[in-house]
Specification:
This protein is α/β, with parallel strands linked by helices. The chain has seven helices and twelve strands. Helix content is about 30%, strand content about 30%. The mean pLDDT is about 90.
Length: about 250
Amino acid sequence: MTENARALDIKNLHVKVEAREILKGVNLTVRPGEVHAIMGPNGSGKSTLAYTLMGHPGYQVTEGEVLVDGVNVTEMEPSERAKEGIFLAFQYPHSIPGVTMANFLRTAVNSVRETPMPPREFRATMIEKMKLLRMNQEFGGRYVNEGFSGGEKKRAEILQMAMLEPKYAVLDETDSGLDVDALRIVADGVNALLSQDRGVLVITHYQRLLNYIQPHFVHVLVGGKIVLEGGPELAHEVDRTGYEQFEPQPATV
C-alpha cells in the first residue's frame, strides 16, 4: 500500500437513527499524522458520526461508506473495526464493576492482536504507558470507571488508546464535563500519543479543547452536513460568532 492510500475515508455518509436521518452526506478524509476537529452545536450529528464510525448497531448507514486504509468497514462489527485500527473514546464512558482496568485492558489488547500478548510484556507495556500519561500504577487495580471522577474516566479512555495503538482515534467530546485542570491533563495525554502513524478526529462543541490539542483542519458540522472547513483559525471564528450563522433560515412568505 502506498503512503497516499493510508487514510480514514468517510464518503457521502448518510445515517438514520430509527426513522430519522441524522447524517446527510458527510465527506471527510483523515490521514496518518493529521489532527482533524469537528465542531458543531448540539444535535448536529457529531456523536452520531462517532458511533457510526465504530459500528454501533443502532445507527443505520443508508448511503455512503467508511474505509480504513482502503478496506471497506461499513458492514463490519465494532470488534472487526477495532482490528482494522479504529478507536473510539466515549463522551460518557460506562462503569464495569468487578473488572479491573488491568484485566479490561489485557482483554482489549488481545482482542485486536493475532496472538495474545504475554502477561509480562503486557504489564511492562501498561506501566510504560501509565508513566507516559503520568498515571499512578494503582489505577490498573481499580474497577473500570467505578467511582472515577470525570477526569479519571477520560484518562482511562486515553490509556486504552495508548495500549491499543490505533491507526485512527476518534475522541467524542472528550472535554465534556471536565474542569480546566482535568482538561489540561487529558489533553496532555492525547498530545503524548500523537504521531505520524496515527490520525486523530476530535469531536467537540467548544473551541477550548482545541487550545490544548492543536488541529490541522477544522470542520463545522451543522444539520448533518459539513458546512465549512478550514484551518485552526476557523475554531476561533466559530467560538466568536457561534453556530447560528450556519443554521438553515426559515422560509419567508
